């Protein structure tokens, strides 16, 4: 039963993330068609990402209340409307509105994590959440297929296909998904529970770690094509393919991070992952030859950031109160999504001022090293979490801010 729920939840996460990322690959074509500025194009692409990130906060709280069997079908059906709207809208304001509601697909991350966390025991929770995290690969599917489908079969084909998949998944989820035995709806409103988890120091500690781990992955997936074209003079297609390799490796490493967390505990896994990212970022700051040094550096950072993302949510499953996993997931997931926006802005600004990416990469190294030290020093007490998946007495005592 738990394996079936894991597979169905991961499938839904993948399809909804595919929908969430539909506008990004079409951004350059929309820019040319409507004569948009670079800033206007960036805003169009950013709107669904920001909404999908921030929207995880209320969706996580609602999942605690209503369960995944209700929330997955509802969010999937609601996402169909903006997807189909993209087949008919042409004006920039209409596209912004459609993109805003398309962000609903990105909130489904906060549905799956508490659902899977409730089904699996602490000894297997990290690996299970890592497998669920493979659903982030839906963004890669969108990047691989959207333009190709539109060119080969007509402009509206990717939207109609994704809408049909969302509808089919909503039926499947309602028919097959089951909430974990013994799940009870917590008392209080979604807003009250969100405020409550916001008072936990551990929530903000997890936000910082996920902003570095998953935020770093998002930042590279967005900015790496431009970096490779500028520094190594690659073609647009070659840079896109290498970036796709980075994304696929990071997504595949996520279950590994969860498995290692089950075996050794998430805290040491995070320390090693962040330390490794710091080392490889310094290596890349010196702009080594693309083959093999830079390729090794980027692929290593992809694997380490992916594993770190899996380890963070293995830690969520261990330290978040059982009846608040959805609310904590929403806040932490929002931090990870938003964390991906800051590095590209800094990298672009530094390059514009200095004509070099070295400072930006050194800053990444500093942040990763700070995360490693903070995890090792401030969070080592989390290794004493209880087998029930809640916060141990020493941690709980200092969790209230």
Oligomer: single chain
Shape category: globular
Number of helices: 19
What radius of gyration results from the CA coordinates? 20 Å
Quantity of strands, as a count: 0
What's the average pLDDT?
84
Pick out the low-confidence regions: 384-401
Report the portion of residues in β strands: under 5%
The H/E string reads: HHHHHHHHHHHHHHHHHHH
Helix content: over 70%
Structural class, judged by helices and strands?
Answer: mainly alpha
Q: Termini, distance in Å?
A: 38 Å
For the biggest sheet, the summary is: none
Concise overview:
The chain is mostly helical and 401 residues long. It is 81% helix and 0% strand. 52% of the residues are buried.
List the main descriptive attributes of the protein structure presented here:
401 residues; mainly alpha; disordered C terminus
